[in-house]
Prior knowledge:
By secondary structure, this protein is mostly helical. The chain is built from 32 helices and no strands. Helices cover 53% and strands 0% of the residues.
Amino acid sequence: MRRNLILLAGGTVLALSSALVVAQDAPESLLPPGFDRPRPSATRAASPPATPTVTRGSNAATPAGSVSVPVVEAVPGAAGAVPALPAGVKLPTLQELEAMSPEQLDELLGLKPRSDMPAAARRSLRQVGVLASYEGGLPAGSLARQNAALVKATLDGNKGPLVSRWGHILLRRALASRLDAPAGMNPADFAGLRAALLVRMGEGEAARAVVQDVDAGNYTDALTRAALDAYAFTADITGICPVASVQGGARKDAEWRVLRTVCQAFSGDGAAAMAALDRMEGGKVWPKIDMLLAQKYAGAAGSARRAVTIEWDGVSELNPWRYAFTIAVGLEPPAELLRNAPLRYTLASATAPMLPLTTRAAGADRAAGLGILSSAAMVDLYGQIYAQEDITGEWADRAALLRTAYTGETPDARMAAISQLWDAADSPQVRYSRQVLTAYAAARMPPGSAFADQSADLIASMLAAGLDGNALRWAEMADVGSLAWAQLVLAAPARPTPVPGSALDSFYDNDESDNHRKSRFLLAGLAGLGRVEPGAVADFSDKVAIDLNRQTRWTRLITQAADANNPVLVVLLAGVGMQGDGWDKMTSVHLYHIVSALNRVGLSAEARMIAAEAVARA
């Protein structure tokens, strides 16, 4: 097949360089007379035969033998003229044609498809995303009439990790929704902006789903860049191949050249791909370690199998494709590289199916607290560890503890196991992830004075998974002014009477957080939900030294978005206001405006969970 393509390309070169095109006679028919004519239908048989006409001035005498018919279409213009090549275009030599891949030959001969989808299967760009409104997605037309520059700024301006687990979950939901692009913005670019933010948030799978909702023929530079980041995050190396096939040589950067060559190996041309990767060695395109990893991955395709030894000597850092190729070939980077690597690699490991379960569990200890993994997903992961007999040590012990936390014979045994899981955490972020892990076990604990000391943590654990109904069973045991009471007064779906100032003062007296941050957040959350007496807002604001009426450009924007009842824009702006790696980065004013705006646009459940989380984790 490859030789045929080369001969075809060589014939094209000869045809273009010839000064004269000679038509050949049509082949003689080998059938007896009359057998090469179709049988006339009844309708045609009833009609008299048409009388042949002879154009005046033409050759009336035609020999009975074969008729010379051109098989090469005539070139428009003067007879015998050969079309000139565009300026600067150089025809490849036969040696260059020999070295070309089938994909490159398709480009040369104009055979490359503009789309990887048949016309009937191509998808519209009118709404891009993976969550329709009936599946929990936000309203599709929310951003259609919004200023494109503002929407772009809210997406580009968000650097990724959010302080709130529930804020993260809500922002992911908005970014994955099926949405119309803002007026004046290319829908593919809009998808790229959303996918890029999802990657920065650690949501590689969601980002990949968004970019895959756009046909490869509709990709723009921005969407291609976001797709590359999403596929690198998920170690889905060949995921970019349909886009690379359609776009071809549109990009010239080193990353694109290597990935196209890897795709060539998996498309059946392994020998040529490996030869091309060999020519890229020596640091000419990628560093040596990256080229070796690419060769090892491509070498697993087809008959071009090749053993490649990976040596990490002299490698001092990770990069996205280095990590992706490493885990894709069944290896793990050296521990010292991971120890100092950015958080994104820890988050990527939590959902990477090719990694060992214990490595994934270590990543989940951060990913769950951020909102990337649900409580059910965490329990499933630990369930696999428990069932794996060859896993021993601390992770096996934790899996056994989790089993006891859910199935212990007595409440005391279950509470002891839950507390052990929490207390073994080495940081507040990991401890909160363990509370996500134990959310349903906490919901099984019977409310009562026997566990009063653990009630605030049990409630925080339940609310981490949105189990507000189970948490509210503890309301009668929660003393006014306690941390358990504060979470419940925020998380309750409704409250018949506003919270009085005396209750806020009681909470303040029990508050041991830095600079009374919990008290500040409690006031901000209650004021945002409209659950505090008006006079108490002013008095308690003075007591904790905050001004909820302070205005900034961001507060005006999110207020205007709420006034317009635009939930998607409110969520995007709330995401901008919740950036950070801890609740010490959140201000009371920001929390007040976020909770208030979400509550006003119909996202009251998320507003309540964010407010309660803020008080629990401040």
